[in-house]
Design brief:
about 450 residues, alpha/beta, Rossmann fold, GMP Synthetase, Chain A, domain 3, 2 domains, four-stranded mixed β-sheet, 19 strands, globular
């Protein structure tokens, strides 16, 4: 490794140390060590820790949060009964109504704890990928706990403090031409090199590739769709990365099989899929054996289903660290199911057996079968003549397919596409094809290939 790379790595490691002392106190290494010890503990130790944190959170919430205090009163729920259930081996908080996004919007102030003054709140909001951005509050303790967990899980992919990292992520400031010096400074001391996932031009990707040949990143953090586009650019132009990537962390979107296949081939490494939400932080991460392990230190995860281990349903997330504005049984908008297996990787964190993606991207047939949006994206993968597509399920009987086509498009291809859609949804479903010049990105910057207005 060139001297300047070694020097930058040492500088970045020292900067990370200083940052963590500033944010988490002088004993942050001890906190990180305890975090690691818990995540590597036997399953029962992990679940017992989770039960205690859940009990503390609910007790705090009912006593200090107007919304939940009124909710318990209106429904005649008894706190003591609930606490006894939490202490039992089988946790059941199902008597608490799920927290819906519209409730967060309407009850924003009432969901905030009375113990935290407004100046201690940290305002945040979702990217609005499924509609209007959702505003909420967090606190510094939440962020400190969240970061400790992220540090642990990212090391599964080979990340470590000071190691150079390529980040392919959305950066609205870059799109708008704004030069944020604080942002640039943060990227410098973190030893991160950014490619704007909201603005992937050929020139930007080529410049980034040349820079990575010099910077030698050990990990990549990326939106799956942006990672795929970068990998496709490298492959299409017969470029060969000269750097050794330990692992790729994908996050914020669904990781479709063809995304994974191409990226793992181009970068000659494994992708570690990370699942989370801005409202609640990191929910689960994929291990070396391909299982998604649930972050039980920070999250209590439920599936709204008659049998959460066999029948997929809406994921309900309880965030165990955000005492400023507790999220209890929050319907995050994704569909999945649990697994009771012990992972062969050796880690005993519970496993998220299946993640089907956004409820708005998961289609439903007349027979009530849920169809993963990835089924449809695979039908368009490497389909000659199609540059961009978007499939919208308007009703159980009607779909609209928007297509951006190129000179390789053939009329008979439309029959093939319609056939594949009807194979999944039913032959009686009508598919209207609309040819458009462009399918614009939503404000979130996350491309939506499938949208269901039914689910």
């Amino acid at each position: 490794m060139p001297i300047r790379h070694s020097t930058k790595k040492v500088f970045s490691k020292v900067a990370w140390h200083a940052y963590n002392i500033h944010r988490k106190g002088p004993f942050y290494r001890s906190k990180l060590s305890k975090t690691t010890k818990l995540f590597n503990a036997p399953r029962e130790t992990i679940l017992q820790f989770q039960r205690e944190r859940l009990k503390q959170l609910i007790q705090h919430t009912v006593q200090t949060t107007p919304y939940y205090r009124d909710l318990f009163k209106d429904f005649g729920l008894k706190q003591n009964d609930l606490f006894q259930q939490i202490n039992a081996d089988s946790i059941d908080i199902s008597q608490i109504l799920p927290l819906e996004k519209q409730t967060v919007r309407k009850q924003l102030e009432n969901l905030c704890s009375e113990l935290f003054p407004t100046y201690q709140r940290i305002e945040n909001a979702t990217g609005g990928s499924t509609g209007t951005p959702l505003k909420f509050y967090q606190d510094r303790s939440y962020w400190n706990q969240r970061n400790l967990s992220v540090y642990y899980f990212d090391q599964w992919a080979g990340w470590d403090f000071g190691e150079p990292q390529l980040v392919i992520w959305g950066a609205l400031a870059d799109v708008n031409g704004n030069d944020n010096w604080k942002q640039n400074l943060n990227r410098y001391w973190r030893n991160q090199h950014w490619l704007n996932g909201f603005h992937l031009t050929d020139s930007a990707m080529h410049a980034t590739f040349k820079m990575m040949q010099r910077q030698q990143p050990t990990t990549i953090l990326a939106y799956p769709s942006s990672l795929y586009q970068f990998a496709k650019f490298i492959s299409d132009n017969n470029l060969t990365p000269q750097w050794k990537t330990k692992g790729v962390i994908s996050s914020a979107e669904m990781l479709h099989p063809h995304y994974r296949s191409l990226a793992e081939t181009v970068f000659e490494t494994k992708i570690y899929n990370r699942y989370g939400g801005r409202e609640v932080g990191l929910i689960a991460m994929e291990c070396s054996k391909g299982r998604m392990h649930i972050n039980c230190r920070d999250i209590y995860l439920e599936v709204d289903s008659p049998n959460p281990y066999t029948i997929p349903g809406d994921l309900l997330v309880t965030q165990l660290n955000n005492y400023t504005m507790p999220f209890i049984r929050y319907r995050i908008g994704d569909i999945g199911r649990l697994s009771d297996e012990m992972c062969p990787c050796g880690n005993q964190l519970p496993v998220l057996g299946e993640l089907l993606g956004r409820s708005t991207a998961t289609f439903r047939s007349k027979t009530k079968t849920l169809i993963h949006g990835g089924y449809f994206t695979q039908q368009f993968y490497n389909l000659a003549g199609v540059t961009q597509f978007q499939l919208i399920q308007e009703t159980l009987e009607k779909c609209i397919l928007k297509l951006v086509v190129n000179e390789q498009w053939k009329v008979e291809t439309s029959n093939h596409i319609v056939q594949k859609i009807q194979d999944a949804l039913g032959t009686e479903v009508s598919v209207k094809i609309e040819f458009v010049d462009e399918i614009p990105l939503p404000k979130s910057g996350k491309r939506e290939f499938t949208i269901s207005k039914v689910t």
